[in-house]
Amino acid sequence: MRIIAGTARSLPLKTIEGLETRPTTDKIKETLFNMLQNDVPGCYFLDLFAGSGQIGLEAISRGALYAVFIENNRKAAKCIEDNIAFTKFTKESRLLTTDVISGISNLEGKYTFDIIFMDPPYRQGLEEDVLRFLSKSSVLKPDTMIIVEASLDTDFSYLDELGFSVIKFKKYKTNMHVFIQQKRV
């Protein structure tokens, strides 16, 4: 696993051993960032269920001004901390070692984000819990792009009632990225 492009290009990143996290493959990460290439430079990026921190670090490497990582697994958080130090992105990042809802609550009134990426454990309904919380959160701007990495069978039928709509989605062999924004009034 490595940074694919930008100022930290080719730097290898740590990940924790075992099945506690599911790092996004380089190929899927590259496809994602190709889709976001015009949105990342100059943005504030929130990486939820951050794992190794590779998505947020890739965003900083590609020109994001700042990234906040939220991860409650202590081993994974240590890995993120090490990866931030190794890439020398300490001034451009902040790590919160807590559950996602508590982390977002902690950010209320302090930050707004242009892009929010989340890769929660599959088939636990966590993306719905987070999206319900975000629908009332001050960390969203009117045009914030929320990207959820999810299993192919994940149901997003509740988005309309939360005031969100799917802008686009990209399916892969075993998962997908769903791009979500608040509905325009």
Automatic annotation (TrEMBL):
GO MF terms held by the record: methyltransferase activity; nucleic acid binding
Q: What Pfam family is a match, any one?
A: Cons_hypoth95
Keyword annotations from UniProtKB, A to Z? Methyltransferase, Transferase
Among the record's GO biological process terms, what is one?
rRNA methylation
Q: Which NCBIfam families match?
A: 16S rRNA (guanine(966)-N(2))-methyltransferase RsmD (TIGR00095)
Protein name as it appears in the record:
Adenine-specific DNA-methyltransferase
Q: Which organism is it from?
A: Roseburia faecis
